[in-house]
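In this section we walk through a basic example: taking a raw amino acid sequence and producing a predicted 3D structure, encoded as discrete structure tokens. The instruction is simple. Fold the sequence below.
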Amino acid sequence: MPSRAFLIAIAASITLSCSVVASFLEPSPTALLQKASANLKAAKTTHIEGTGTFAIKDGMNLSFDFKMSGDAEVPDKARLNMQMALLGQSLSVDTITIGGRTFVKGLQGTTWTEGSATDPTQSGMLDPLGQTDLSTVVSVTEIDRPEVEGKKTRHLKYAVDVQKLVDKMQSAPGAASLKPSNVIGTGEVWVRTDDTQIVRQLVKLSFEIAGDLGLSAGGAPAPSGKGTFEMSFDLHFSQIGKPITPAITAPPTR
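The resulting token sequence is shown next.
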């Protein structure tokens, strides 16, 4: 008859072996992130709830926080409503982004206008879905494994490949002349383990653009001759893969 200590040792060995096998079978942080990105693209649609911040430094500073809610269709369509307080005014701004073109209603009246591709405050560069493109990420590592809304997740962090991000910015319609510098991009994602879908994402991005942005006090240009943009998004994804009604289409503009 084997001793109790012997049986305990055998059980512990089996448990340890299973844990080692499981660690070999589960994807690495980089593989998990790419799989989750592919799954979101395959699902095609998602509902987005989130918050964000945006700041411009150009001689004088302008910054604001906002809340957003809406729907997105991968890879390049989004329809969002943003609630924000800007220069003492509460604003409700609607945006539609399609293929790098962004349409805005609420900043300059009640009609739709198309943003300039070289203006980061109105172009697709501020499209939160566009900033969640994971094809430019590097240095993926795992932070922890928390539960999100009762589901187990793997929490990852990453950096952004600067040159790939710049190339993406300049590929937007009409933005070829855009010359961002000192670009820094980082992010975090929470990937649900049961279906490898992204349920939350943090994105932080900053860069500089040469020239006067028109915000300097008294009309004087910024001392550095550059404007600095800083933005961040905290996005929560739900209703992944469900139809979007009505469909996201370009609005009539004036």
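Looking at the output, two observations stand out. The domain at 27-238 is CATH 2.50.20.20 (outer membrane lipoprotein receptor (LolB), chain A). Residues 16-24 have pLDDT under 50 and may be disordered. In the next section we compare this with other chains.
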